[in-house]
Amino acid sequence: MDFEDYYATLGVPKTASEKEIRSAYRKLARQFHPDVNPGKPEAEQRFKRINEAYEVLSDPENRKKYDQVGARWKEYESWQRAQAAAGAQGQPQQAYDWSDFATRAGPGGQRNEYRTASADDFQDLFGEEQPFSDFFDTFFAGGEGGRGGGRRAPRPRRGADQEYPLEITLAEAYTGTTRTLELQTADGQTRRVEVRIPAGVRDGSRVRVAGQGAPGRAGGRSGDLYLVTAIAPDPRFDRDGDDLRTRVSAPLSTMILGGEVRVPTPDGRRLALKIPPGTQDGKLFRLRGQGMPHVGQPDRKGDLHAEVHVRLPERVSGRQRELLEEFARSTTETPVGGAV
Q1: What is d(CA 1, CA 293) in angstroms, rounded to the nearest whole number?
Q2: Cα-only R_g, the chain
Q3: pLDDT tens digits along 168-227
Q4: Residue 130: CATH number of its domain
Q5: Is the dihedral of CA 73, 118, 165, 179 positive or negative?
Q6: Most exposed: 25, 173, 237, 291, by fewest CB within 10 Å?
Q7: Is 0.70 topped by the overall pTM?
């Protein structure tokens, strides 16, 4: 077990004020947080040491005790060597007495604006790995009164979060849906969990189901289950964020004279869309608030864009042909591909 120089870890002098310690901690914690340094184990270890140092130095009682421990650390090292020699010679070993400064922080201790990471925070970041050093465990989290050599009882450990891929249709994403999942437990059993998928989810959305992840340890709470959604393609609609786009067709007469067409929605409704006279093929119309709901805000919706295309008749009667020819003769526009 090595002595931990917490002042050096935070880069502050032993005379540093509480404000200086808090400021140094906040700066270093942001710099070395694992989320900012993915895949860098040296940053993870530094982050642990920073939190451990702040855990001690931010508490006046613990800081006082630490300063006393530091003053006698060489004495303790000498005692350790003597004990090792006694053990090698088969002589009995004695416990080192830290009782003269092994006071614990009592109730009413000062609260600080920037706290250290909790046990659950460390569990989320590092899994089951021990977050604090042996030095910390011995003198600040050991047996009664913090006497050296004591080890803490196992801390409650929150269970790991788990992911579950789930494919749903666009219609289900439009309205929200409920699914019953069959999940495998660690002992091979199957459990059924009913989950609610909120309206508006997208490809890759993570829907949290609290307490349905891996079970905790030593009385810790279970982790969470995250449903990772994938939206199956829908041939009728293209999606862009919360907006939808679809194609509808209208007869030639409606495009020329005006009229009304029906626009489908993912939930099976058909909305009336007014087509003004002289609408060109491919004209895009916007139906406000008929797109996808925004996750968590079902009253806030995107738009539905309808692209209208002319639907030509496959056959025309003799009378229809006569009218079309008369129309063609009466128009002042030059036919496409005709003489100039």
Answers
A1: 57
A2: 35
A3: 999 999 999 999 999 887 777 888 999 999 999 999 999 999 999 888 877 888 889 999
A4: 1.10.287.110
A5: positive
A6: 237
A7: no
d(CA 274, CA 258): 8
* Domain enclosing residue 105, as ranges: 6-146
Does 198 reside within a domain?
A: yes
Instruction: Round to whole Å and give the CA distance between 127 and 270.
Output: 51
> What pLDDT, in 10s, does the model give residues 56-74?
888 888 888 778 776 665 5
Q: Are 255 and 291 in the same domain?
A: yes
Kindly state the greatest CA–CA separation across the chain. 121
Structural domain ending residue among the three candidates 231, 260, 291: 231
The chain-wide mean pLDDT, for the chain, equals: 79
The domain that holds 167 is classified in CATH as 2.60.260.20
Name the nearest CA neighbour of 166 among 174, 157, 175, 177. 177
How many residues in total does the chain contain?
340
Q: Is the Cα torsion angle 196, 198, 199, 203 positive or negative in sign?
A: negative
Kindly provide the residue ranges of all beta strands, DSSP E only, lying in 81-171, ordered along the sequence: 162-168
Domain edge (last residue) among 187, 204, 231:
231
From residue 295, alpha-carbon distances to 164, 175, 210, 316, 339 in Å are 19, 11, 17, 49, 57
State what percent of residues in the chain have pLDDT above 90. 42
- Total number of domains constituting the chain: 3
75 pLDDT more than 80? no
CB atoms within 10 A of CB 166: 18
If asked whether residues 129 and 78 sit together in one domain, one would say yes
Are the C-beta atoms of 292 and 267 separated by less than 8 Å?
A: no
